[in-house]
């Protein structure tokens, strides 16, 4: 292996280690987020509130799109990601109401 290839392999290893740490942060962050949305779902069920709030969801999507632009992340990807999370949360809220 050339010195250039060895250097590239070391840089690749460092990038992958960072990616692994960031993946862990994402998983723990999502776990924490879902703990709170589960609590919201229980609260909504206890007080006969609807499982979804379209105005809140639209505001969150717009906010996330702005954050994505600031973070140099594709806003469409961010929107799809949040829509996926919102759909999952609504399913959880519906489960609490049954």
Automatic annotation (TrEMBL):
Keywords: Isomerase. Its EC number is 5.4.99.5. It comes from the Bacteria. Signal peptide: none annotated. One of its GO terms (molecular function) is chorismate mutase activity. GO terms for biological process: chorismate metabolic process; salicylic acid biosynthetic process. NCBIfam families: CM_mono_cladeE, PRK09239.1. PANTHER family: CHORISMATE MUTASE (PTHR38041). This is chorismate mutase. It comes from Sulfitobacter marinus.
């Amino acid at each position: 292996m050339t010195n250039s290839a060895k250097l590239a392999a070391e840089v690749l290893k460092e990038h992958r280690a960072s990616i692994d740490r960031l993946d862990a942060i994402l998983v723990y962050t999502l776990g924490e987020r879902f703990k709170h949305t589960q609590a919201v779902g229980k609260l909504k069920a206890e007080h006969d509130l609807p499982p979804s709030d379209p105005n809140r969801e639209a505001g969150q999507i717009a906010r996330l799109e702005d954050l994505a632009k600031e973070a140099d992340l594709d806003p469409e990807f961010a929107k799809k990601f949040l829509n996926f999370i919102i759909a999952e949360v609504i399913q959880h809220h519906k489960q609490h109401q049954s």
